[in-house]
Amino acid sequence: MIEKNNFLKKAFRRYYYENINKIYAPQRLSEREIGYLTFYPEKMIRHITLKNEGELKALLIHEAPKSVYYSTAYYDDPSAPINARIWKGADLVFDIDLDHLPFKETNMIFIYICNNCNSIFTNLDNKKCSSCGSEKISTISIPTKEGLEYAKDEIIRLMNILIEDFGISKDKIKIYFSGKRGYHLTVENSFYEDSDQHFRLELSDYLTLNGFKLLTTTILNRNIPINELSQIFPLPYEKGWIGRISKSFFENVIGIKLESPNDAYLRTLLQKYFSTVPYKELKLSLEKIIDEIKIRIDVNVTTDIHRIFRMPETLHGETGLLKKRISNIDHFYPLVDAIAFSQEPIKVYVSYAPKFELNEQIFGPYKKEEVLLPEMAAIFLICMGLAKPLEFP
Ligand SMILES: [Zn+2]
Known about the structure:
Blueprint: H1 4-18, E1 34-37, E2 44-48, H2 53-63, E3 67-71, E4 73-75, E5 87-90, E6 92-97, E7 108-114, E8 120-121, E9 137-143, H3 145-166, E10 173-177, E11 182-187, H4 197-208, H5 226-232, H6 240-254, H7 263-276, H8 279-293, H9 299-303, E12 308-310, E13 324-326, H10 334-337, E14 345-353, E15 356-358, E16 361-363, E17 366-374, H11 375-384, E18 387-389
Antiparallel strand pairs: 1-2, 1-3, 3-12, 4-5, 6-11, 7-8, 7-9, 10-11, 10-13, 14-17, 14-18, 15-16
The chain binds zinc ion.
Zinc ion binds near residues 116, 119, 129 and 132.
C-alpha cells in the first residue's frame, strides 16, 4: 500500500508545478505573515515573510504544503515575534461555514470513524464506538451541493449588507469558496482597514443581530399600545435591519407581495393585523424573522486582527479542492469550479464513502472495496481519510 501523505504531497506538488501561472500573490504580500501546514510530520510553520510572488511560487512547488495561509493583517516585519511587530492594519474578513448555519440533513453528510478499531459509522447515538466501545471518534463532514448553495445565499446576503449599510463598494469585496464547507469574503483597501478589534466586534454584533433588543425598537415597543404601533412600525424600504425585518414581516407573516404598495395601504394592513393577532403571537413571529435573517458569520474570524487565513487559489488539504476566487457568484458551482485534479483514473481502496457529487458526476456509495476513480474523486476521498491510494497516477 502507498503511504497516503506521500501520495498527496506528490499530487499537490504536481498540481502547483503544472498550474503555477494561476497562482497570484495577495496584495502587499511582503507585509503579511505567511504560514503553511506540512504533510508529514503534520506541522504548522509560521512567521514567514515572502518578498514577492516568485518566492510564493517557489515555496508552493518546493514545499507542496497541505494548506497555505496568509495574515489578514499588515506588519512592518511579519517574521518578527508577534509582540515585536508593528501592526499596520488588516483586511476585513468574514467566514460563512456550513458548521455555523442551522443544521439541515440535506446540507451535510456526517461520517464517524473510531480511532481505536477503525470502524466507520454513518450515525452514532451516544458518541461511543458500537464495535469496541471507544470514545475516540473522528467526525468527517462532507458538504452536499444543496448545503453549499445554502451557504452561498448567506454570503450574498452578507455582501449586500456590507454594501448597503457600511458603504463598502462592490469592487473592494472579494468572495471565495473556502475549499471545504463554505465561503470567505474579504474587503481590502477600505477605510475600515485600521479598525481595531473592538470595532470588528461591534460590526460582528450588528451582522449577527447579537444584542438586538426587539422590545426597545419601533418594531415592537413595550410602551406603545398595539393600535398605535401600526402607525410607527417600520416600512420595508427603510434602511438597515429594521427595513429588512419589516420586509420579511410583510412578505412572510402578513403575506403580501411588495411590488408597489403605498404607505397608507401598508399601515392599514398593519392595523388590521395587529388588532386581530395576540401580542404573544406577534412577538414570536418577529423573533422568528430575526433569527432567520441574521447573518451567521464565524465571529472569531472577523474579530481576530492577527488571524492567518487560507490563501486564495491554493489547495485545501482536507478536500483537494481549491480556495477559489469567485468572479460571478450567480454562476459559480463549487463542486465544479473549485476542482483542481484530473479525470485520469486511479485505483483506490475505499473504506467507506457515501454517494457524493463532483464535477457533475455521481460517485458511490462504496464500502470496503477497490474502486477505479477519476483522480479528482480519489484525492477528495483520500484527503477526507476515507480512502487509501493503491497506485500513483
Ligand atoms: Zn471502535
